[in-house]
Design a protein that fits this description.
By secondary structure, the chain is mainly α. Helices cover 78% and strands 8% of the residues. Its main location: membrane.
Amino acid sequence: MKSGQAEVVETSKGIQKSGLMSRRIAILEFILRIVALFNTIGSAILMGTTHETLPFFTRFIRFQAEYSDLPALTFFVVANAVVSGYLILSLTLAFVHIVKSKTQNSRILLIVLDVVMLGLLTAGASSAAAIVYLAHNGNNKTNWNAICQQFNSFCERISGSLIGSFIAVVLLILLILLSAIALSRRH
């Protein structure tokens, strides 16, 4: 009889330990979502407010560089804004995962939506990265000159925006992995 009681005690300790681990994973997910949110919204704001004007010979003729001049950079801003909105909404489910440990269906939903948002964010960041590369280096074969020697502030801001977005991509990958680990520990 004592051995039966010992098994029950060990089993309940294992359940408590598993529940504690699930709660820790949920808290880490919540924190990573907040950090990813700040990265995506910061990238969208930084890119969306990027513009620089240079005078050319006279004060009436000027060259301008704005993110909205290039569709890839506009897509980048929209993708980051959409992912930011999603991350704000997903914080509620992430909070539910901290409070309740039996949330398998909502965790599966978050994994699916995280993967979709990862694809959108990666597409936006990659398309903008191609434009930023051309802005920094140009392309001699197509006569596209590098503009970063003239529009220094513009290039610094769009490069910084890209860094924030790619950090958010890595954080979304970590969120997907953490959700998968949390799901696998329940079975």
